[in-house]
Amino acid sequence: MNTLKSKISEKSRMRTKQNDMKKIWFFFALAFTMSHLALSQSINQIPVVAWGGIPSNETTVERYVELREAGFTHVIQPMDADSLAIAMDIAAEVGIKMFVHCPELKTETEKIVKRFMNHPAIAGYYITDEPGRSAFPALGEWVRKIQAIDNQHFCYINLYPNFARYLETETYQEHLHLFIEEVPVPILSFDHYPVFLDQTGNRVLRLEWYENLEIFSDKARKAEKPFWAFALSVEHYHRSYKYPIPTLEELRLQVFSDLVYGAQGIQYFKYWGSLGRNDFYYAPIESRTKKRTEVYDYIKEINTEIKNLSSIFLDAKVVSVGHTGEIIPPGTKRLEFLPDVIKTFETEGAGAVVSVLQKDGKSYLAIVNRDFKNKMKVKIEGEPGLQRVLKDGSTVPASAYINTMTVAPGDILIYCWNR
Q: Does domain 20-315 have CATH number 3.30.300.20?
């Protein structure tokens, strides 16, 4: 009996310890989520990340001003710790935030965290990209080690898309579930590049992309964590896929689809071209000439729109997302109804992504043309209080416009009303 009591007592102590640890990491997660919100609100917009930013041998004030003028707010760029220190000093000078991304973060964690944790340019700590399930336990320990030193800046890990081969789990949903359970990062991030060239050279949309957004946004919402998503801004080959130089329309489709699904950060891969196994050379900054391409101008235009519309999407609650069209993407839901303020709603062509969001006593209807090649007509009629939101963020009565509007390829149309 004493042995039994001893075992029960030991189990009780273990449960108490586990519960205490859960409470500790809950408050860590809450603190880091709040730090992410504070970070977004401090720049007063959706964060815009240059993934693969300025190389260390090009670290100058002029280059970082150029990046900022394209509308970027954050940079993720690998370099050694000393080069990173120089880059972060310049980034702070021009108003850019950077993630600590250096090999020493792994080998000398405590030293590097203490070196950069109070730097005015720090956004957080880059841990890794696209880990398989077997790496989760070690990543969780690494993240906890950093958080124990610095509880003001978050750790960042980007995850695989749903078509990846190296998940090491039976399903994508299981992969995300285990990551969320085992790795205490406050934001979730994934990459998925949907536009590629088929065997005939035509630009096509990968069918799994919208399903990926459905799954990821659902997991993030249930975990009560914001998520960040990507747009592809570089031409390259990857295994059997050929990704073309992106068009303005393709970039808009990716960015606006991310936002209407609730993304709280937009990331572009990549900003600066590079030569190597995949030859990522034709990016916003071309690797050989180190000069801007037309993609720089596309991104600058879209980033201005993101900034102008951040008052809508930043911290908004996504109420519903539905798709229209004769055929909707697999894994998505068909639009069945809209709030009563919308009296008539019809789309022509390939169809649209339609999202209802709420923020600060207002409701929003965001409509994205799912076709990046052709225009789409939208017929919409509403009650007198319905307003149209323009690309500069201002509003005008919807009644000032005709009932049938034309939406450019990949573009967005937004309406709002008081709840």
A: no
Which residues fall within 8 angstroms of residue 273, CB to CB, at 6 or more apart?
234, 280, 281, 282, 283, 285, 286, 287, 288
Count of C-beta atoms within a 10 Å radius of residue 340: 8
Rounded to 10 deg, the angle between the 61-69 and 81-94 helix axes is 60
User: Which residues have C-beta within 8 Å of that of residue 243, sequence separation ≥ 6?
Assistant: 193, 195, 196, 197, 232, 234, 235, 236, 237
Angle formed by the axes of helices 208-223 and 172-182, nearest 10°:
30
- Tell me how long the chain is: 419
How does pLDDT run across 203-246, given as a tens digit for each residue? Answer: 999 989 999 999 999 999 999 999 999 999 999 988 788 999 99
Domain positions in the chain: 20-315, 318-418
Residue 40 CB neighbour total at 10 angstroms: 19
Q: Are 336 and 322 in contact (CB under 8 A)?
A: yes
Token pair 């085992």: residue: 182
- Of the candidates 124, 114, 147, the one whose C-alpha atom is nearest the C-alpha of residue 36 is 124
Cβ density class 91-124: b for 16+ within 10 Å, e for less? bbebebbbbbbbeebeeeeeebbebbbebebbbb
CATH 2.60.40.1180 fits 318-418, yes or no: yes
CB hemisphere CA count around 65 (13 angstroms) = 4
pTM: 0.91
By the 8 A CB rule, do 206 and 195 touch? Answer: yes
DSSP-assigned letter for residue 324:
-
